[in-house]
Design goal:
Helices cover about 70% and strands about 5% of the residues.
Length: about 775
C-alpha cells in the first residue's frame, strides 16, 4: 500500500453505491404506491346493495392491529406462524362458499354430494369468475357477483365462530375481541364482521387479476389451485437468473478482494504476547455502562422465556395445564419476544458506544455521566411502558389510545406510536452523547487513518436512529402495501442492513483498539465490506415485496440482489477464522478471549443463518410456496440470535472486561464464559436444525401437495411427527436457557466488581495510550514506502 493513502476512491465507490441502491429502492417504492390494490369506497352486490363500506374495511384493519393478530397469524404471508394465514384461509373459505352457492343453484344439492365431474365444473366456473376485476375506478366501487356475495357471507359466518367464544384457538383467550367497543381508528358496528371485511379484501386482491394483466395484485400468491393461483413463470425465470448472478458475483468479488488486498493485516505475531492492557483507569460514564448490561441480561432472559412459552403453545393450548393464555396470550408473548431482542441488542450497542467515547476523545466530556443516566432511565421507561402497553391493548385494558400506548399491530413494530417516538428520542440522546466525543476527535489532523476509522464508526452510529424514522410514516389506517414497504425498512434495512454494517465497523474498531490489525488495512477492509453489504442488501430487501400487492418489478430486483446478499455474508467466514486464529494463537494472558469466541460464532452464523438459510428461502420459486412457514422462522432465529445475539455478547464482554477489576477475571470465570458460548450455540443449533428446519420442510411439502392454506392450519402441528419435533425442541431450549442464566450470573457479579472511576487518571492513561498508538501507526506508515 502507498503511504498517504486518502481513501478517496473507496469513498466515491461507497457514495455511488448508496445513491444507486437507494434510488432503485425509492423508485421501486413509488411504483409500489402507484400500483397498490384499491381499497373500495364500498363493496356492493349485483343489485348495488352495500355489503362492505370503506369504514368497515379500515375498522377491520384496526381490529387486526389492536389485538395483535399479526403476532398470532399472518396477513399476506407476513406475521407470526401459529395461527393461520388469514389471506389464504379467507380465500379458501370464500371459494367454498361460492362452490356451495353454485351447487345449490345449479343442482339443488350440497357441494359435497356432487359427482367429481359436477364439482370440477363448478370449481372451473368459480376460478374463472373470481379472476375478473369488477372494481370501478371512477366510482371507487367493487361489485360482487351473487356467488361472490355468497362466499362473503360464508366467510362472515366462519369468523364469527372463530373469534366469538373460541377456546379452540391455541394460545388465545376466548372471545378476545370486543365485538361492540369502538376504539381509535374504528367505526361503529360488529368488530368481528369488520375484521372479516379486512380479511375478505385480502382474499379478493390475491385472487383478482390486475387491470389488463393475467396475474393478481399479489403475483398469484397464495398458492391455491382452486383459485387459479399458481407460481408465475417469472418467479422461476428470475430464480434461475439469481443463481447465475450469485456465481458471477462470487467470482467478481473474490477477484476484487484479492486484487486490491481488502484483508485486515495482522499486527501481532502468534509467538509473541500481545501488548494490550485492559486494566486502565475508567471514567464516570464508562463505569455507568455496567448497569445497562444488567438490564440487557434481564431482557435477554425474559425474551427467551417468552420464546419457550410460544413454543409450548404449538403443542397445547395451556402451559402444562396452567391457562397462561389468559394472562400471556401467544400474540403478547410474540410481541414481547420480538421487541425484547431489539431492545437488548440495541441497548448493548448503545452501552458499548458510550464506553468508546472517552477512548476516542481521550478524556471524559463534561457532565457526560448525567446524560448517560438520563438515557438509562429513558430506556427503562420505553421498554417497560411499551411492553405493558402491548399487553394492555391486546387484553382490552388500553382501548381509546391503543395505537399510541399499546400494540401498534405490525410485526417488529409492536411499539405504540408514543413509544416509537420515545425510542427515537433515546437514540438521538445517545447520538448527542457520542457527538460530544466523536466530533472533537474528528477534527484532529494527526493520525489520518484512525480519524477515518472513527468517521466510519460515527457514520454508522448516526444511521441507527436515522433509519428507524421510517416507522413514523405508518399509521393504523395506512394501506397495507404502503405500511409494509416502510415496515421492511425497519425489519430488513434497519435490522439486517444498518445493524450489520455498524457491527462490521465496530468489529474493525475493536480489532484496531486491541492492536490486532493495522489501522489502514482495517479501514480499507471495512470500506469493502460495507460497500458489499449495502450495495446488495438495500435492494435485496425487495425479496419481501414479491407477494405483497406490489409492483412485479420486485420479482427481478428482489431475486437478483437477494442472491448477491449472500456473498458478503459468506465472505465473513474468513473473518470468523481470523477471530478463531487470534483466540488460538495468542498467549494465555490475552484478556479478550471470551470476546473472540463469540466473534467467531458471529461470523459462522452470518454465513449459515443469514447467508445460507436466507438464500434457502429468498429465491422466488421457493419463497412462493415457503413464505411464512417454519423455514422463515429458522432463518430468523439463526440470523437474529446467531449474528446479532452473539455479536452483542462479544462486545458486552469486551466492555465489561475493561470496566471491571482485573482480579475478577479468574480462570474459573473465563471457563464460565466458554461454557456460555458452548451452551448458547449448541442450544441455538438444536432449535434450528432439530426442530425448525425439519418442520419447515414438512410444512413446505404440505403446501405443495394441498395448498398454502392447508399447510398453515393448526392441525399441521398436531401431526405425530411434527408434534415430536416440537417436543424435541425442549432440549435445546433448556440448553440455551442454561447458557443465558450463566451469563446473567457473570454480568451481575461483574456489576459488583467494577473499578473506581477516576477521570483524571483515565485522561492521563488514554493520552499515553494514544501517543503509543500514533508512534506505532507512524512506524507502519514508514514501512509502506
Amino acid at each position: 500500500m502507498k503511504a498517504g493513502y486518502n481513501y478517496r476512491r473507496l469513498t466515491r465507490v461507497l457514495v455511488v453505491t448508496l445513491v444507486g441502491a437507494f434510488s432503485i429502492l425509492i423508485a421501486g417504492g413509488l411504483a409500489i404506491f402507484k400500483n397498490e390494490a384499491p381499497r373500495p369506497s364500498q363493496i356492493v352486490n349485483q343489485n348495488g346493495t352495500e355489503l362492505i363500506s370503506k369504514k368497515s374495511l379500515l375498522s377491520g384493519q384496526a381490529v387486526y392491529e389492536k389485538y395483535g393478530l399479526a403476532d398470532y397469524g399472518t396477513y399476506l404471508g407476513n406475521g407470526s406462524y401459529l395461527g393461520p394465514d388469514y389471506t389464504a384461509q379467507s380465500l379458501h373459505i370464500y371459494l367454498k362458499g361460492m362452490d356451495q352457492y353454485y351447487a345449490k343453484t345449479l343442482y339443488h344439492k350440497d357441494f359435497t354430494t356432487l359427482s367429481d365431474l359436477e364439482q370440477g365444473g363448478i370449481k372451473a366456473k368459480v376460478r374463472k369468475e373470481i379472476r375478473v376485476n369488477r372494481y370501478n375506478k371512477a366510482k371507487q366501487t367493487l361489485r360482487l357477483t351473487d356467488a361472490q356475495a355468497a362466499g362473503l357471507k360464508t366467510l362472515q359466518s366462519y369468523y364469527r365462530k372463530e373469534f366469538i367464544n373460541n377456546p379452540q384457538q391455541a394460545g388465545l383467550p376466548a372471545s378476545m375481541i370486543n365485538q361492540k367497543k369502538t376504539d381509535a381508528f374504528m367505526y361503529k358496528g360488529n368488530k368481528v364482521d369488520q375484521l372479516t371485511s379486512f380479511f375478505f379484501w385480502g382474499a379478493w386482491l390475491s385472487s383478482t387479476n390486475r387491470p389488463d394483466r393475467s396475474f393478481t395484485y399479489t403475483n398469484n400468491w397464495p398458492y391455491d389451485q382452486d383459485a387459479g393461483n399458481v407460481m408465475p413463470a417469472e418467479a422461476m425465470v428470475w430464480t434461475a437468473i439469481s443463481v447465475a448472478l450469485l456465481v458471477v458475483g462470487i467470482g467478481v468479488i473474490i477477484y476484487f478482494q484479492r486484487r486490491y488486498q481488502f484483508d485486515m493485516e495482522s499486527r501481532y505475531l502468534p509467538d509473541s504476547p500481545i501488548d494490550i492492557d485492559p486494566d486502565l483507569p475508567i471514567t464516570t460514564s464508562q463505569k455507568k455502562v455496567a448497569k445497562f448490561f444488567v438490564i440487557v441480561m434481564l431482557m435477554f432472559l425474559l425474551q427467551i422465556l417468552m420464546g419457550e412459552l410460544m413454543a409450548h403453545y404449538y403443542v397445547e393450548n395451556s402451559f402444562f395445564g396452567l391457562p397462561l393464555q389468559n394472562i400471556w396470550p401467544f400474540n403478547v408473548a410474540k410481541a414481547w419476544h420480538l421487541q425484547l431482542v431489539i431492545f437488548w441488542v440495541a441497548t448493548t450497542w448503545l452501552a458499548t458506544g458510550i464506553y468508546i467515547v472517552p477512548r476516542v476523545l481521550r478524556r471524559e466530556p463534561r457532565n457526560q455521566g448525567k446524560l448517560v443516566d438520563l438515557l438509562f432511565w429513558g430506556l427503562i421507561i420505553c421498554v417497560g411502558g411499551s411492553m405493558l402497553g402491548e399487553w394492555g391493548s391486546t387484553l382490552g385494558i388500553i382501548n381509546k389510545n391503543w395505537w399510541l400506548f399499546g400494540n401498534f399491530g405490525w410485526e417488529y413494530l409492536e411499539l405504540g406510536k408514543f413509544w416509537q417516538i420515545v425510542f427515537i428520542l433515546a437514540m438521538v440522546l445517545w447520538l448527542i452523547i457520542l457527538m460530544r466525543g466523536f466530533i472533537p476527535a474528528l477534527k484532529r489532523k494527526a493520525d489520518y487513518d484512525r480519524t477515518r476509522l472513527t468517521t466510519l464508526l460515527f457514520s454508522g452510529a448516526i444511521a441507527i436512529p436515522a433509519f428507524y424514522l421510517a416507522s413514523l410514516f405508518i399509521l393504523p389506517n395506512s394501506h397495507v402495501t404502503f405500511a409494509d414497504y416502510w415496515r421492511w425498512w425497519i425489519v430488513h434495512l434497519w435490522v439486517e442492513g444498518i445493524f450489520e454494517s455498524f457491527a462490521v465497523i465496530l468489529i474493525g474498531w475493536l480489532m484496531v483498539d486491541m492492536k490486532l490489525t493495522t489501522v489502514r488495512s482495517t479501514v480499507r477492509a471495512l470500506y469493502f465490506q460495507v460497500i458489499l453489504l449495502l450495495g446488495s442488501g438495500v435492494v435485496g430487501m425487495g425479496h419481501h415485496y414479491f407477494w405483497e400487492g406490489d409492483h412485479s418489478v420486485w420479482l427481478a430486483l428482489g431475486a437478483s440482489f437477494s442472491a448477491l446478499e449472500i456473498v458478503p455474508l459468506c465472505l465473513l467466514v474468513w473473518e470468523a477464522y481470523t477471530h478463531y486464529r487470534v483466540y488460538r494463537d495468542t498467549q494465555k494472558v490475552f484478556p479478550y478471549k471470551g470476546t473472540f469466541i463469540f466473534l467467531m460464532w458471529t461470523g459462522i452464523w452470518n454465513a449459515v443463518g443469514a447467508g445460507a438459510l436466507g438464500f434457502l428461502i429468498n429465491a422466488p420459486a421457493i419463497n412462493y410456496f415457503e413464505h411464512g412457514t417454519q423455514w422463515t422462522a429458522a432463518h430468523a432465529h439463526a440470523s437474529m440470535a446467531g449474528v446479532y445475539g452473539m455479536f452483542s455478547i462479544a462486545i458486552m464482554l469486551y466492555t465489561l472486561r475493561n470496566v471491571t477489576k482485573k482480579q475478577f477475571w479468574t480462570k474459573k470465570m473465563e471457563k464460565a464464559v466458554s461454557w456460555v458460548a458452548w451452551l448458547t450455540n449448541i442450544g441455538l443449533a438444536g432449535m434450528v436444525f432439530i426442530t425448525l428446519l425439519p418442520m419447515g420442510q414438512i410444512q413446505l411439502i404440505d403446501a405443495l401437495k394441498h395448498g398454502y392454506w392447508h399447510a398453515r392450519l393448526l392441525s399441521f402441528y398436531h401431526q405425530p411427527v411434527v408434534a415430536g419435533l416440537l417436543w424435541a425442541r425442549l432440549v435445546p431450549d433448556l440448553i440455551f436457557t442454561a447458557g443465558v442464566v450463566v451469563l446473567l450470573v457473570i454480568v451481575v457479579r461483574a456489576f459488583f466488581n467494577l473499578k473506581k472511576d477516576d477521570n483524571r487518571a483515565a485522561t492521563k492513561a488514554l493520552e499515553k495510550l494514544a501517543a503509543e498508538d500514533e508512534r506505532e501507526d507512524a512506524a507502519e506508515l514508514k514501512n509502506d514506502y
